[in-house]
Design a protein that fits this description.
This protein is α+β, with helices and mostly antiparallel strands and 267 residues long. It has two domains: 138 residues, dinb family like domain (Four Helix Bundle (Hemerythrin (Met), subunit A), Up-down Bundle), CATH 1.20.120.450; 108 residues, Nonspecific Lipid-transfer Protein, Chain A. It is built from eight helices and five strands; from the N terminus they run ααααααββββαβα. It has a five-stranded mixed β-sheet with strand order 3-2-1-4-5. A hairpin with a 5-residue loop joins β1 and β2. α2 runs parallel beside α3. The longest helix has 22 residues. It is globular.
């Protein structure tokens, strides 16, 4: 696996295709046989049935977008789900969709122009997005089932990149993002195991990731605040599944800046 992950330079397309299938099956393994009415602590007010329906529906919706190569925001999210009557059958329904998803991804040109809500206006945006939606919800499911999840560090680092690159565009469904501003404060997120680092600057008109140097490393100027930790933990932190106050993270700088960041970036 190519583990290179730079802002704006995703992993190879085949890596995403293979990982989506793998993460989907891991998700179904976590929920299969579990009580569908069980609560999902990381998704307030959701049960395992809600989470499973969400994952299956989202994958089918993304595949519809990719098949049509939509050029403008869709007016409806209606799609034929074929949802079983019994919530106990939802895991099998998600698993049954894996071959169809794989076929769509196989037939998709990742460089095809299409509408996307994020930074990259190409089909590959939705494939990358599908992976991390599935991966994070797989972790949600495993935790709800009492399992300790693990995440490949290369995929996790790429997920950190994908999150930070697209977050400035997420105000459509995460209103707090629109209110995240500052006066030039810079926050650094560094993966202790992969060595990758991202910096985000908060300006009066919004925020944005800062470009990396030609060698792929972040600039050397001092940061207002920084969070260092394993890639998997950083990914879950950004998605609100962990707290920056946990001992796994090495945190430095202005606490108020970090508090403002996490208060506005619920995704």
């Amino acid at each position: 696996m190519d583990t290179t992950s730079r802002a704006g330079h995703p992993l190879p397309y085949d890596t995403y295709r293979e990982a989506i299938a793998r993460e989907t099956l891991r998700f179904t393994e976590a929920v299969d046989g579990a009580d569908p009415t069980s609560a999902v602590p990381s998704c307030p007010d959701w049960t395992l049935a809600d989470l499973t329906r969400h994952v299956g529906a989202l994958q089918r919706w993304f595949c519809t977008l990719l098949t049509r190569l939509v050029q403008e925001p869709p007016r409806s999210r209606d799609v034929e789900l074929g949802l079983p009557d019994s919530a106990a059958e939802y895991p099998g329904w998600v698993a049954a969709g894996v071959p169809a998803v794989a076929a769509v991804l196989r037939d998709t040109d990742p460089g095809a122009p299409m509408w996307a809500w994020g930074e990259d206006q190409h089909a590959r945006f939705w494939v990358r997005r599908m992976l991390f939606e599935t991966l994070v919800h797989r972790v949600d499911a495993e935790r709800a089932a009492g399992r300790e999840p693990d995440i490949d560090s290369a995929l996790a680092a790429d997920g950190v990149d994908e999150f930070l690159v697209n977050l400035p565009h997420a105000g459509l469904f995460a209103p707090g993002v629109r209110e995240l501003r500052g006066n030039g404060e810079t926050i650094a997120f560094r993966c202790a195991d992969t060595g990758e680092e991202w910096r985000v600057r908060l300006d009066p008109d919004g925020f944005r990731p800062l470009p990396l140097g030609e060698d792929g490393t972040a600039r050397s100027e001092p940061c207002t605040a920084a969070v260092h930790g394993p890639a998997a933990d950083l990914l879950l932190l950004l998605y609100g599944r962990r707290s920056h106050q946990e001992p796994v993270f090495d945190v430095s700088g202005e606490a108020a800046t970090l508090d403002r960041w996490f208060a506005h970036t619920a995704f």
